[in-house]
Write a structure and sequence with these properties.
The complex is a heterodimer of chains A (about 260) and B (about 280).
Chain A (H helix, E strand, L loop, with lengths): L9 E10 L2 E11 L4 E5 L6 H8 L7 E6 L4 H4 L3 E4 L13 H7 L2 H4 L7 H13 L15 H13 L5 E5 L7 H16 L3 E5 L3 H7 L2 E6 L1 E7 H4 L2 H8 L1 H15 L7
Parallel strand pairs in A: 3-7, 3-8, 5-6, 6-7
Antiparallel strand pairs in A: 1-2, 1-4, 8-9
Chain B lengths: L1 H25 L3 H10 L1 H10 L6 H23 L5 H22 L8 H6 L9 E3 L5 E4 H29 L1 H6 L4 H42 L3 H26 L3 H24 L1
Antiparallel strand pairs in B: 1-2
The chains are: A alpha/beta (about 260), B mainly alpha (about 280).
C-alpha cells in the first residue's frame, strides 16, 4: 500500500543503498505531502536511519534519487534540519548548551561569517522552546539523556528550517522530555513544517503520527496512519517476529497464563 | 642567551603541539598524530638528501606530504579494506618509519643524520644555526623563525577555522547534513599536524613531538570543559613543560628534549592528582 501524493515535499524514487554490496534499502519509492508528521517504522536493521541519511546525502546511493521541495538537495539545504541519534556523538566534548544551540546557525550563517546578536537570540529562543534556556551555560557533559536530546532539538530548531529529519528522538528519554518533544512536533506541524521521525515503538506511533512509512529493507507501506497501521501490513513489515509474538499471546491466553508475568 | 633560544624553541614546538593536539584528542585521533610524527621520516630523509637541513620551505612541504600520505593510507585501509583503525595506524606508520630508518642507514655517508638525532633531535644546537643579515645583524636561530611562522599560521587557521574544526569534531554527521565538507577539515588538520611535526623534527626529534601533541591537550581536557579554555590551558601547560624541562635537563645534565617530554607527563600527573583531590 503505497499512496503517492501530488506536489510532494519529498519525492524518493527507486532508492537503493548498499553496505558491502548488501542492500540495506531496496527500491524504495514514495512521496510525502507537505505539513505531514511522518513516522518511519520498522524492525531493527530495517534501514530506517539509513533512509533519512540517504535522503540528506550522507550516504552514497547505489541507485535512485531523492528530491526535496521538488529540487536537488544542494539547492535547498538551508531549508532542511537534522537531529542525529543522541548516541552518535561524544557528550564529553567541551562545549556548553548554548554552544551546541548556536551550531544550528552555522548552516545559515556560513562557517566564516560572524555570529550575530540575532543568531544568539534565535538560539536562545530555540532553547526556550525545549525548556532548556535555564541550562544555557551548563556543560553538555552534565546533562541527562533527555536533556541532551532536547539540546539536539534546539540546535535543529535554530536552523529555522521547513523540513526536519529526526533519528530516534524518543530513544531513552524521560517522560517529561517525551512530552516536550511531542508538543514541539505538533507546534512545528501547526506552522506548516514537515517532520520525518525514525521511531520504533508501535504503541505510540498511531497516536503521534499522521503519516506512516513501514520499512523493512523494502518499503511495505506509505500512507495516512489509519490505512497503514493495519495488522496485515504490520505482519508484512515485522515478518515472523510479530506473528510469533501474537501466537505466544494467543496460546498464553488460551491456557489462562497471565503473559505479563 | 642560549637558554632563552632553547626554551623559546621548545615552547614553540609545545604550542603548536598543544593547539593541534587538542583537536586530535577530541577526535580520538591522538594516535594518528603519533603515526604522522613517525611516518614523515622517509620524507625528511629525502629532503635531507637535497640539502643538509630543512631550511627550504619547499622541502618542508615535501616532507610534510609524507604525513598526509600516511593519513590517507590509514583512512583507505580502514574504509576500503575494513581494517580496524588501530591496526591500520600500526601497519602504516611502522612501515613508513622503517623505510625512513633504512634510508638513514643507506645514506649515512652523504647526509648528516643519525638515528639518535631522528629520535631525540638536537635542541641544544638550535642557537648555533642563526640567520645573519648581510649587514651582520644576527636575527636569531633559523628554527625559531620556522617554528614561529608556523605558530602564527596555525593561529590564523584556528581563528578562521574554529567553527569548522569544532563542529566537524563534535558531530561530523550533522556538519555533513549542513553541507560542510568534513574531509576538507580532516585533511586541513592532518596537513597542519604533518607540517608542524616536520618543522619540529630538527629540534626535538620525531618521537618527542608526540609528547607535545598528547600531554598538554590531555592535561587541559582534565581541567576544563570549554573548548576555548582547553586550547589556552593546553598552550600554558606546553610552555610550562618547555621551561621546567630545560631546567630539569640542566640539573640532571641530561637530554633537554627528553626532560621536556618528561615534564609534559609530570604536569599531567599533577593535574590528575589535583582533579582527584578536588573531586573528593
Amino acid at each position: 500500500m503505497i499512496q503517492h501524493v501530488d506536489n510532494p515535499i519529498i519525492e524518493v524514487h527507486d532508492l537503493t543503498v548498499s553496505y558491502d554490496k548488501k542492500p540495506v534499502l531496496w527500491n524504495v519509492d514514495f512521496t510525502i505531502p507537505g505539513g505531514a508528521l511522518v513516522g518511519i517504522i520498522g524492525p531493527n536493521g530495517a534501514g530506517k536511519s539509513t533512509l533519512i541519511k540517504a535522503i540528506m546525502g550522507l550516504l552514497p546511493l547505489s541507485s535512485g534519487y531523492a528530491h526535496l521541495f521538488g529540487e536537488k538537495l544542494d539547492n535547498v539545504r538551508k531549508r532542511i534540519s537534522y537531529v542525529p541519534q543522541r548516541e552518535s556523538v561524544d557528550w564529553d566534548f567541551p562545549a556548553s548548551v548554548m554552544d551546541i544551540a548556536l551550531m544550528g546557525r552555522y548552516g545559515q550563517r556560513g562557517l566564516f561569517k560572524r555570529i550575530t546578536a540575532e543568531d544568539r537570540s534565535i538560539a536562545r529562543q530555540a532553547l526556550e522552546q525545549v525548556h532548556m534556556l535555564e541550562f544555557a551555560n551548563r556543560q553538555i557533559g552534565q546533562l541527562s539523556g533527555g536533556q541532551q536530546q532536547r539540546v539536539f532539538l534546539a540546535r535543529a530548531l535554530a536552523q529555522q528550517a521547513d523540513l526536519y529529519f529526526m533519528d530516534e528522538p524518543f530513544a531513552g528519554v524521560d517522560a517529561a522530555t517525551e512530552g516536550a518533544i511531542i508538543e514541539l512536533l505538533k507546534e512545528l506541524k501547526a506552522q506548516g513544517k514537515t517532520i520525518l521521525v525514525v521511531h520504533h515503538d508501535l504503541q505510540s506511533a498511531a497516536e503521534y503520527f499522521d503519516w506512516i512509512l513501514l520499512l523493512n529493507t523494502r518499503l511495505v507501506a506509505s500512507g495516512p496512519t489509519a490505512e497503514t497501521l493495519t495488522p496485515t501490513l504490520l505482519q508484512e513489515t515485522y515478518g515472523g517476529k510479530l506473528s510469533l509474538l501474537a501466537q505466544v499471546g494467543e496460546i498464553a491466553s488460551s491456557k489462562g497464563v497471565n503473559i505479563r508475568e | 642567551m642560549d637558554a632563552f633560544w632553547i626554551i623559546l624553541t621548545g615552547a614553540l614546538v609545545a604550542l603548536n603541539g598543544a593547539l593541534l593536539g587538542s583537536f586530535l584528542l577530541l577526535r580520538r585521533m591522538s594516535l594518528v598524530g603519533d603515526a604522522i610524527s613517525h611516518a614523515v621520516l622517509p620524507g625528511i630523509v629525502v629532503a635531507y638528501l637535497f640539502t643538509a637541513s630543512l631550511t627550504s620551505p619547499f622541502l618542508l612541504l615535501g616532507a610534510a606530504l609524507t604525513g598526509l600520505a600516511a593519513t590517507w593510507i590509514i583512512e583507505t585501509l580502514n574504509q576500503k579494506a575494513k581494517l580496524q583503525h588501530d591496526a591500520a595506524i600500526g601497519l602504516t606508520f611502522t612501515l613508513l618509519f622503517a623505510i625512513g630508518v633504512i634510508l638513514v642507514a643507506s645514506y649515512t655517508g652523504q647526509i648528516d643524520l643519525d638515528m639518535d638525532c631522528v629520535l631525540y633531535g638536537e635542541i641544544a644546537y638550535v642557537p648555533l644555526d642563526t640567520i645573519t643579515l648581510a649587514s651582520g645583524l644576527d636575527l636569531g636561530p633559523k628554527q625559531v623563525w620556522t617554528l614561529g611562522s608556523l605558530f602564527i599560521g596555525l593561529l590564523g587557521l584556528l581563528l578562521v577555522g574554529y567553527r569548522g574544526l569544532s563542529l566537524t569534531t563534535f558531530d561530523a554527521g550533522y556538519a555533513a547534513a549542513l553541507g560542510i565538507n568534513t574531509s576538507f577539515w580532516h585533511y586541513a588538520l592532518m596537513a597542519a599536524v604533518s607540517l608542524s611535526t616536520v618543522a619540529a623534527f630538527e629540534s626535538v626529534g620525531a618521537i618527542l613531538v608526540v609528547a607535545f601533541l598528547v600531554g598538554p591537550a590531555a592535561t587541559a581536557f582534565l581541567l576544563t570543559r570549554d573548548l576555548k579554555w582547553m586550547l589556552v590551558i593546553a598552550s600554558l601547560a606546553g610552555i610550562l613543560s618547555a621551561i621546567t624541562g630545560y631546567y630539569l635537563a640542566l640539573w640532571l645534565d641530561g637530554s633537554i628534549s627528553g626532560a621536556m617530554a618528561v615534564m609534559t607527563g609530570v604536569i599531567f600527573a599533577v593535574a590528575f592528582v589535583w582533579q582527584m583531590w578536588r573531586g573528593r
